């Protein structure tokens, strides 16, 4: 799949926006004006920069880049918008994928696709192996509470277009068990995400998190691991609404545990995508926690929830700052990781 930068460089913004909005007219500061498709627009209030595709509506306040526009106008997710815009730009969205599937998946390719440092991945048990045919693939090692390798939980990824899969006869486990001591150091606050990529992204930013390898594998969520936590924030991806309630039911024996459902920003599927698109991840999580809805049995006053959320995210920022002084790969973002974020993430203009 071509990168967002490659698509923007190849896309004819004038042709694209006129096809979506009709004839544009000259505006101020070199921008062009058209009728906004997101509200009843009587006079042209939609302003777009045809050099970079950034747009803003002076009527309803909607704004973003060409990918935000496509997602909102076409009512689709980011990967779909990326694919369709690549086609409109004259690029083959599947050429690179087909080639990579033939060649396998290296650790470097996975790191580049997820915007994660290679040495950070290695420190967290992600490595490269080769099959009998010589093709490389990525291995995610799962560890238990004592740090021991759980061989039957190991998951493999053979291409970027496929999800990780368990070994034959493997058994699913929670990803991140071995980090429980440092997670509990965050006053018992925990983020629950789906899959290894989201979990690794959370750790890069110093966020306390564990991952479930698939929304349907809730049977692995035994109360024993969660008994010492206080609050769990569940990232509900689009299409997974109600996941937090299922988790709350699964952990209902822990009467003290409070579980909150978090809804991601429009057009964002998961934590990894937020990171790769250059969003301020800590601010995004902070906003989601502030808006989180409690789904566990004992619900307290909303203002108390809000205050607890703010306290947690504040600690998250302190943790990230603290992690700038560490580079052991065990306590969230290291100096190297923070520098990597600053150097590699795309800037949202």
What does this entry show, briefly?
By secondary structure, this protein is α+β, with helices and mostly antiparallel strands. The protein has 15 helices and 14 strands. The chain is 38% helix and 14% strand.
Unreliable spans are 300-337
User: How many structural domains?
Assistant: 3
Looking at the structure, the CATH topology of the largest domain is: Dna Topoisomerase Vi A Subunit, Chain: A, domain 2
Shape: globular
> Helicity range of the residues?
25-40%
Total helix count?
15
Strand order of the largest sheet: 1-2-3-4-5
- Beta fraction: 5-15%
What is the CATH first-level class name of the largest domain? Answer: Alpha Beta
Task: Kindly provide the radius of gyration, computed on alpha-carbon positions and rounded to a whole number of angstroms.
Answer: 22 Å
Order of helices and strands: HHEEEEEHHHHHEEEEHEHEHEHEHHEHH
Largest sheet: 5 strands, antiparallel
What's the rounded overall pLDDT mean?
A: 82
Distance between the termini: 22 Å
Structural class: alpha+beta
